[in-house]
Structure to design on (964 residues):
């Protein structure tokens, strides 16, 4: 962090004017982050990305990308995107509502502490155990189902939906909502009670407050939460693999299949090609998010 | 003593020589018959100075890295404990849920570091595809293994196997006498495979067994895939992963699995039964291999010797798996009779898939399974 | 505008709003409670169910008997500590700096911090193998080297949390005011910015500790035995134990996280003046109902 001798409070902070040339050493401040990220994120990602262009004999090939056309991969792409969108939007909405309920309480109180800690634990809770927790409660041998069935409400009469996409959405919400709570709380913390009073003193009601004051201020953080939840759901693997082991609706399962298959379906290049496809899709969603941020900043 | 001093001196010298020679060989030093380096290229115990020398070298290494050996798989827990108790060598067990391919990936990626796996227990498809990673080694009981169950130079050799079976909780579902009983309404939402057939050996063989049971052949698995499609359509097939927890909790009371793995559910569910259809006795064996770049080559070889000793083979038998030396041990009388009596009865000729048949089955399943089960 | 000076009609309107808020909170907490506690309850029920259907604590009681569990717990705790600290040291200054001086880099940093979440861990570990091979032979074989990978894994969650926190305060004005009073950049970060985003930092820390304690794939594929890998080992014994250890791990993480929330609050209570001076405290949205 440099720029010695910069003027105190100006809009031109950090731009010394030396000998007719304008240069800034501000970028140095970002160097540690970028160095770390290049070594431990870009390099491994690069290794994965490059691997998609080679086949089993280490010959250059584009076959792996052609294979992305396989019917079960296309279906997985669509299913994964749909599940991620649904759980991202619903998770964000419910998470925001829950966060609001938490933030309106005592900031140092027991409830806030417990809610925040529980959210931390549950946001990272997943895998075989989460799948089993749902199976043991609302599954076909779970106590909730047996109770409902004995009272005439057989909710698996038409299909065993817990092991289909609807069930997956429900199970994913279990960690999406707490994640949103944790990520959105800081934004809610920044809302000051004075703004509410100001709105009211100007004659506005709740609707005006949310639509014109708090809403626009919270919307960027909300959208950011949606994006995070989308990516979180998109790449999640362990939970869906335990819940829906057979039809492999998610792309991450297709990757795992191509990497771990012990019956001979081992295609590491193909797995990496799917990974690139996932990066492309999430990049696309990120661009959408950026555009949405700019648009809503204008008319909100 | 009545001996004169020169003879006493000679006697002492002889004793000293013997002691020095003994110390030398067990220390694995300059005069050592077996050392870590020598074990790296030794293709049998005798090539490394004999079993005792191998034991000494292994103890000097002090560690063994194994991978993908869950304790409840074919009684591996007892084998790991037994080896450690007998030789005092620490075992690090990694990636318990790993597949055979994961084992090979670990060897390829970490092969020269101290944490890399020393030995592998893999399915046949993976063994045949990765022989360039293995070191040849013939255990002392090599001749007891049938020629068809080992690679000629010792790159891989089969260890234990069983038959594909249907395990079920006889309290929750009715007794299964024929394969097609599974299509009955009592099995709605209850039948599961152990894993995905595109990935797991056990699951692919499960589909093949169904294939044989409904009239298909080993060369064409389509009837098996179609049968599972039918099972899904009538609502009997459960897409969730069958684990010990889902079995105990009653969500997946019927599971296609190797008979020795299925038998393990009996621990949690006392009314668990194992059924092998008479017209579809599909057998499968796994294979052992030693990594060429094993960080502890002497310990690795000693582990193999242990597994193929009578003690090791009987421990697998106690896990209801059929050890590869079973026939020879029955002939020599060293077999654990009570354990052998507990094996599920099999009436008929077992079928084993060849490599070509496995590959053909895999290709078909990879292309058609997801659509069949959707 | 003090409440006491308001006319009576407004006071009753305020009271209605407050009541509506409380009703909202209770309904939300009740629904959330049901949704989140029922599956957990099922886990506890199953882990205390014996083979004959009786209630038993044998599975829970067998947990402390596993020798490898202690080493795994200690390793995971160390990893959690290192990862959180490294993440905070790496992210907070960078995010503040980008916000102040390099706003054009915002989108790039945002995207980079989302990247670890777009690549499933199972395939990311393939790219990490060469690094860990090099690290293992040249630097150290210890399980603590996993921290390098974990810092990358927590980036998405922590970035989003810290971003929300930084967005709620006026970083530019704060830093300019502090600089004009002669503060060094270190002081600006440590004594001005950090106390104002302490809640966001706390949440980011909680997320990163929870992630490290719950991380399985990368440790497992790199052949390290951290807490989750060891739990899988244990779980292979029988069904009851597999769920009991998972529930125990959740409880452990929960208690640990609550303890961490107390670390933050002591700081906040010891330095109330930093909030008073700026007047941009991180207070709640109290008073009126939504």
């Amino acid at each position: 962090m440099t720029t010695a001798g910069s003027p105190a409070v100006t809009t031109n902070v950090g731009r010394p004017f030396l000998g007719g040339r304008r240069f800034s050493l501000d970028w140095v401040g970002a160097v540690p982050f970028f160095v770390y990220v290049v070594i431990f994120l870009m390099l491994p990602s690069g290794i994965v990305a490059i691997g998609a262009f080679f086949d089993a004999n280490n010959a250059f090939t584009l076959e792996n990308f052609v294979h992305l056309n396989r019917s079960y991969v296309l279906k997985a792409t669509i299913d994964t995107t749909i599940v991620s969108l649904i759980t991202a939007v619903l998770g964000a909405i419910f998470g925001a509502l829950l966060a609001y309920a938490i933030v309106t309480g005592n900031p140092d109180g027991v409830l806030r502490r417990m809610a925040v800690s529980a959210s931390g634990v549950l946001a990272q809770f997943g895998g075989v155990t989460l799948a089993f927790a749902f199976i043991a409660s609302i599954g076909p041998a779970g106590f909730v189902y047996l109770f409902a069935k004995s009272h005439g409400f057989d909710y698996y009469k038409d299909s065993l939906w817990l092991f289909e996409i609807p069930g997956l959405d429900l199970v994913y919400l279990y960690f999406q909502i707490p994640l949103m709570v944790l990520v959105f709380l800081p934004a809610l913390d920044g809302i000051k009670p004075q703004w509410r009073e100001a709105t009211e003193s100007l004659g506005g009601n709740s609707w005006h407050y949310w639509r014109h004051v708090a809403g626009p201020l919270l919307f960027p953080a909300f959208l950011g939460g949606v994006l995070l939840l989308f990516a979180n759901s998109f790449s999640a693997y362990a939970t869906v693999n335990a819940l829906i082991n057979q039809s492999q609706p998610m792309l991450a399962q297709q990757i795992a299949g191509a990497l771990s298959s012990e019956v001979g379906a081992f295609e590491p290049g193909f797995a990496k090609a799917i990974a690139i496809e996932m990066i492309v899709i999430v990049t696309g969603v990120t661009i959408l998010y950026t555009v949405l941020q700019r648009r809503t900043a204008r008319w909100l | 003593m009545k001996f004169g001093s020169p003879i006493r001196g000679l006697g002492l010298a002889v004793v000293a020589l013997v002691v020095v020679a003994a110390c030398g060989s067990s220390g694995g030093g300059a005069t050592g018959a077996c050392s870590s380096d020598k074990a790296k290229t030794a293709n049998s115990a005798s090539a490394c100075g004999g079993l005792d020398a191998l034991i000494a070298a292994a103890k000097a290494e002090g560690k063994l890295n194994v991978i993908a050996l869950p304790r409840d798989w074919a009684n591996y827990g007892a084998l790991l404990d037994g080896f450690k108790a007998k030789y005092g060598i620490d075992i690090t067990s990694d990636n318990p849920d790993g597949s055979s391919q994961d084992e090979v990936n670990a060897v390829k990626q970490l092969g020269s570091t101290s944490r890399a796996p020393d030995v592998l227990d893999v399915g046949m498809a993976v063994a045949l595809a990765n022989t360039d990673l293995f070191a040849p080694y013939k255990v002392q009981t090599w001749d007891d293994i049938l020629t068809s169950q080992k690679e000629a130079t010792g790159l891989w050799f089969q260890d234990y196997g069983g038959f594909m079976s249907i395990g079920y909780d006889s309290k929750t579902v009715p007794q299964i006498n024929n394969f097609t009983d599974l299509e009955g309404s009592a099995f709605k939402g209850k039948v599961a495979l152990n894993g995905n057939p595109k990935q797991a050996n056990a699951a692919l063989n499960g589909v093949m067994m169904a294939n044989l049971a409904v009239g298909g052949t080993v060369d064409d698995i389509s009837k098996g895939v179609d049968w599972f499609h039918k099972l899904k359509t009538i609502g009997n097939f459960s897409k969730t992963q069958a684990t010990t927890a889902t079995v105990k909790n009653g969500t997946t009371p019927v599971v296609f699995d190797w008979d020795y793995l299925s038998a393990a559910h009996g621990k949690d569910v006392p009314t668990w039964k194992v059924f092998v259809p008479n017209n579809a006795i599909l057998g499968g064996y796994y294979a052992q291999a030693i990594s060429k770049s094993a960080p502890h080559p002497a310990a690795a070889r000693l582990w193999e010797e242990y597994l193929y000793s009578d003690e090791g083979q009987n421990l697998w038998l106690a896990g209801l798996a059929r050890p590869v030396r079973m026939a020879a041990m029955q002939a020599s009388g060293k077999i654990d009779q009570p354990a052998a009596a507990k094996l599920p009865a099999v009436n008929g000729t077992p079928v084993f898939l060849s490599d070509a048949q496995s590959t053909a089955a895999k290709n078909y399943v990879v292309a058609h399974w997801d659509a069949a089960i959707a | 505008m003090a409440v006491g000076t308001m006319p009576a009609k407004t006071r009753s309107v305020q009271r209605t709003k407050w009541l509506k808020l409380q009703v909202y909170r209770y309904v939300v907490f009740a629904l959330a409670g049901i949704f989140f506690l029922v599956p957990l309850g099922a886990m506890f029920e199953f882990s205390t169910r014996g083979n004959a259907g009786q209630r038993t604590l044998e599975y829970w009681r067998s947990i402390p008997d596993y020798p490898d569990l202690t080493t795994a717990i200690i390793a995971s705790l160390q990893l959690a500590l290192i990862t959180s600290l490294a993440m905070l040291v790496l992210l907070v200054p960078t995010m503040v700096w980008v916000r102040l001086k390099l706003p054009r880099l915002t989108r790039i940093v945002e995207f980079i911090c989302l990247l670890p979440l777009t690549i499933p861990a199972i395939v990311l570990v393939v790219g990490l193998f060469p690094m860990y091979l090099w690290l293992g032979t040249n630097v150290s074989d210890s399980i603590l080297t996993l921290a390098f990978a974990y810092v990358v894994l927590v980036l998405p969650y922590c970035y989003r949390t810290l971003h929300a926190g930084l967005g709620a305060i006026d970083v530019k004005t704060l830093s300019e005011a502090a600089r004009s009073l002669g503060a060094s950049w270190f002081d600006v970060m440590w004594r001005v910015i950090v106390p104002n985003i302490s809640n966001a930092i706390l949440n980011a820390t909680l997320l990163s500790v929870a992630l490290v304690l719950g991380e399985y794939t990368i440790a497992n594929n790199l052949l390290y035995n951290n807490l989750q890998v060891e739990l899988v080992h244990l779980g292979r014994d029988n069904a009851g134990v597999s769920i009991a250890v998972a529930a125990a791990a959740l409880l452990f993480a929960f208690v640990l996280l609550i303890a961490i929330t107390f670390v933050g609050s002591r700081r906040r209570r010891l330095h109330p003046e930093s909030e008073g001076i700026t007047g941009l405290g991180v207070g709640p949205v109290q008073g009126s109902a939504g």
Q: What stands out?
A: Chain A has two domains: 1-51, 62-299. Chain A touches chain C through 110 residues (CB under 8 Å). The domain at 62-299 of chain A is CATH 1.10.3720.10 (MetI-like fold). Residues 1-12 of chain A have pLDDT under 50 and may be disordered.
